[in-house]
Amino acid sequence: MSGHRFGPALAASAATFRLWAPAAKTVELVLDRPIAMAVDAQGWRTLAVPSAGPGTRYKFRIDGELEVPDPASAFQPEDVGGPSEVIDHAAFAWRAGDWRGRPWEEAVILELHVGTFTPQGTFRAAIDKLDHVVAAGFTAIELMPVADFAGRRNWGYDGVLLYAPDSAYGRPDDLRALIDAAHERGLMVFLDVVYNHFGPEGNYLARYAPAFFTAASTPWGRAIDYRVAEVRAFVIENALHWVRDYRFDGLRLDAVHAITERGEPDILEELSRRVGALAMARGRLIHLMLENDDNGARLLNPRRAMPDGKYRAQWNDDYHHAWHVLLTGEPHGYYRDYADAPTGRIARTLSSGFDYQGERSAHRGGQPRGEPSAALAPTAFIDFLQNHDQIGNRALGDRIETLSERPALEAALAITLLAPMPPMMFMGEEWGSQQPFPFFCDFGGSLGDAVRSGRRKEFAEAYAQFGDRVPDPLADSTFRSAVLDWHGPETEPGRARLALVRDLLAARRAKIVPLLAEISFAPDGTRCDGSVIAVEWTHPAGRALRLLANLSGTSARRPKTWRAGEALWGGEAPDPLPAWSVFWGLGAG
């Protein structure tokens, strides 16, 4: 690790500014005038300024010709090209000062995009919706990335200044106020972070610190090189920044399979250990999650008291993909890996975690994907029927609510929200919102043209089919179409769906959560016969949680071996089983 830290250091009478710029000949701090910065052998530039403090705005001038923001800027009041602002992270008066978090077994997550969660699209406005989130039965919200991006609107995965909450959503203390208000209501708050690439506009690191990048590329930009000590320090400090200075309860690391150079020790392991050390020192429960197309079971361990080189859980795309095929019949793209037997694949994800545990993936050119996962706890897998990706990466951004029938969706919810895996929903899903969530951004000039062109190429068939119905990702109207209509829960179908979700999550809280600290997969207790699945999970107290479901639109024979025990949901299972019926029971193992 580097001996330096990124960003300005505040003292009682001065602020010390720091920049790692090994490829620059000269660096000046620009306040009201440029001031030369001292340099050491490793390329660090430093300057203490007695008159500087909270509120000071500054930039760095590279080689007398290029003015850039601080890559560790705490706030960019004038977007990514403007000056950085010094922020005193210790000044906020926390009200929920005794908050220490919640156990992972209690996690029920609502994923949201701050800019479209409310009409105002701000951190402060989101506070007004937290009571709804709690009443629906969620125990956590997960914010899509908020790190500063170019323009007024973005999904967040084009962030370039990773320490700064984007000014479109408010100031740093507005984000702290949202987290504080959530904690007062018993809600955990997680943050999605991107450590595999930087966005395409507003990142100047390649000019003065090219060692940040490898020769490899990700689908979204140049890959970051974690073999370099300063680069490792930048990202690990960033993770600590969010959980320490903003008191996030955990992080979700985006697409870690696209981190091409993890270094030694593995950057994922080191980041987890450093966050775990902070959690232990402060007596907090902090949870780290992954998105990982590689299905790396070795990275997961949800039952450790603190992160210790492992991660609590991974978003389980296999679960989603199998359900999507079953509910919609769509076999395109990556869904083709699940088109042969979606019901059986749902059963496998419920009974052992991943569907792909080393099998060859046709979508990936026949390459093996994944690792055996049945030995892990079920709580290592975050299950969902929708998320931002699986809605927004469709050409029209259409939700599954518009693609499937109500009885089938309600059966899927009855399984997803009661299964031992932590469930996640996407904002508005709890009331069955049919609003789209299309991809949107706010780039200009040639970059904007390139984004349009890239989307047209990626969705060529959809453009041919839908023409002008495919939303322009750069149009303000596309962004506006994604803003949640909060009249939805007041409609008759909205009230009915929300009541179902509340009832399911109440049953989860009362009957399922007490089992989760010790529950295990039992693959040998799983059966799939046509449309009927029977899945079992075991508990060391001699109990077994059991699921029986008919996942089709016609009735089916009940298995003769079905033993429910205490009925938890759906009542007693009749023979034949009705279409799209779900039954949960708890009995002797």
Explain what this protein looks like in three dimensions:
Among the domains are: 114-197 and 228-442 and 471-513, Glycosidases (TIM Barrel); 522-588, Immunoglobulin-like (Sandwich). The strands form 7 sheets. The chain has an 8-stranded parallel beta barrel. The N and C termini lie far apart (50 Å). A hairpin with a 2-residue loop joins strand 25 and strand 26 (532-539). The chain is built from 15 helices and 29 strands. With 589 residues, the protein is an alpha/beta fold. Helix 6 (229-245) packs parallel to helix 7 and helix 8 (317-328) runs antiparallel to helix 9 (342-352).
Question: Main attributes?
Answer:
589 residues; alpha/beta; TIM Barrel; Immunoglobulin-like; eight-stranded parallel barrel; 15 helices; globular
